[in-house]
Amino acid sequence: MIQRFQFGQMLPTESVVLSLPVTGSPVPFLTPDGTGWRYDMAPEDVIYGLGEMVRGMNKRGWHYCANNSDEPHHAEDKQSLYGAHNFLLVSGGTGRPTFGVFIDFAGPVEYDIGYTDDEILTFRTSEPDYDLYLITGEGPADICRELRRLTGRSYIPPKWAFGLAQSRWGYQCEADIRAVAQGYRENNLPLDMICMDIDYMADFADFTVNQERFPDLAGLAAGMKSQGIHLVPIIDAGIRADDKDETCREGLERDYFCKKEDGTPFVAAVWPGEAYFADFLRPEVRSWFGGRYRALTELGIDGFWNDMNEPALFYTPDRLKAAVQRAAELGAKGNLDMYAFFGLQQLINGLSNNPDDYRSFYHLMDGQPVRHDRVHNLYGGNMTRAAGEALQALRPDRRTLLYSRSSFIGSHRYGGIWLGDNDSSWAQLRENIHQMASVQMCGFLYTGADLGGFGGDTTPDLVMRWLEFGIFTPLMRNHSALGTRNQEYYRFEKWIPSIRNLLNLRMALLPYLYSEFMKAALGDGLYFRPLAFDYPGDAMARQVEDQLLLGEGVMVAPVCTQNAAGRYVYLPEPMKLLRLRSVDDFDAELMPAGHHYIPCALNEVLLFLRPGCLVPVARPACCVAELDETSFTFWSYPVEDSPCTYRMYSDDGVGTDYDRPEHWRTLKAGTGQ
């Protein structure tokens, strides 16, 4: 059941697709607490949700702020990352209530989940105008399903988007792209995508191509597709301030950019230097900006990633001028004491993403000016909406890959997300596991982290262990930053045979993974979920945060500790362990419920089959387009000699006729049918 409560006059977010009447009765479970709400937690209560936030699946013990931030350092002391996912799921213990809370609000929301008092949860919005939805159901998974019924079906990408994506900030020319493709193909490593960062653009301007570095992007795209590889270019939020640039000129002529209070266009610097920012909250601006993607779709591009759309601001001209002047004054003094030095440091650090700058420009909503900070969390998601809606028109009845850095609940209908600029650390691998479950609860099914880490220099063992989890995530992308160690998988020569086995394992499992993704998308379910969702009466399952249930039949338990030769695993019920070294090389063992230490070498993956589970396994291929889904072998765990069956979803992976009954078939172990 979903109840809607209304407070004040909220600014529209369009997060919700289900029209519900306002409930007149008091809000259940919650108690008014000043300007917000309070819930008294019992020791056994688990608090899920908040999507893309730091710390564990259980959010108890910290304070958070849903305020989309360009934050590359995902340490435990952070309160905000790139997404505003205002959904809490309170999972009570025996005799305690289980319910969900969705706060439909465009601005910052603060949460204190046992930080000030370990028994008290509070949350409050920055303004008293919002809708609050209280969701109850048969259990946590059912409550998440109700949230999706409220906010809409999750985005579905093309099937090829489930192959490997290789990305790096630093592929500067056509030769670099060809070299990456060659490196993968020569080493017989599957690859479906090469992502193109800002270097493909002319002067970092959106919807342009540097003709010196990429003289024939259409020919390059066609050549890559002949190898089963799709090019996926980046699009940034800031539009280069240059009256010779067509996008800039059109935006100025049509008055489509955000403005300062005096009515002049707001200007801030990002990659191209000074830039304007499209007012994505206006439907006509979304239509115009989305239509600009045609410049690349006409060249054969069928996938995009949107970035820098919180929006990230390097500096504003006025703030830079003042900082330079003050720095010069301090520099003239010479010998800086502690206070002067740290003041200078704070001055420079305060140039980027300064809260005062977010308070200095405006959007038009229904013809009325609204200051940006009041609707800040809607910006990046509406950039995704602009692209998603336009691409449906530009490529009718065909899917286009689209994922974004910034998001809010509601933008999950238009594209996926990746989990931002992480770093090459074991802590970030663990955080990846936690976040995958949390963002799924908020509707973002097509998601993944930068495998191996984006910032810093990765290591071979981290690359291996992260890939061993990454082969199960819907978005499987290896991405790294300029100036860091090259981490394309073929660079790790000693480990290429093992990496090949892992990537082939992904390809072999893809029919199952894709089928489970589509079941989740079409049925408003979850692809990944915590153990406690399926074993609510198991007190130990409620504590496990580094194992995930995937679809209806399997559990994954990644090794995420450096130098570990295995890990402890908790099984809520008997399961069949597959210790996989390749599709054809693995150990199988029936394991009772309980606690186990399981050895796992650096080239092995632990996969657990639940009782009655059947997993179809294909022969590996160099890309998704080459997969043969007409014949399978099976991994299964039959119970009491009952035959295992599997209801499988399979389509052409390109069209949008998702609901046709012929996409479904039932497989039985031993028949291959």
Low-confidence stretches: none
The largest pleated sheet is described as: 9 strands, parallel
Mean pLDDT: 96
Q: What is the total tally of β strands?
A: 39
Helix content: 10-25%
Approximate strand percentage? 25-35%
Strand order across the largest sheet? 25-24-22-19-14-13-12-27-26
Structural class: alpha+beta
Tally of alpha and pi helices? 14
Beginning-to-end CA distance, first to last residue:
40 Å
CA gyration radius, whole angstroms:
25 Å
Overall 3D form: globular
Textual characterization of the structure:
The protein is α+β, with helices and mostly antiparallel strands. It is built from 14 helices and 39 strands. A nine-stranded parallel sheet has the order 25-24-22-19-14-13-12-27-26. β24 (416-418), α11 and β25 (447-448) form a beta-alpha-beta unit. The radius of gyration is 25 Å and the shape is globular. The model has no long low-confidence stretch (mean pLDDT 96).
Defining key terms:
673 residues; alpha+beta; single chain; 39 strands; 14 helices
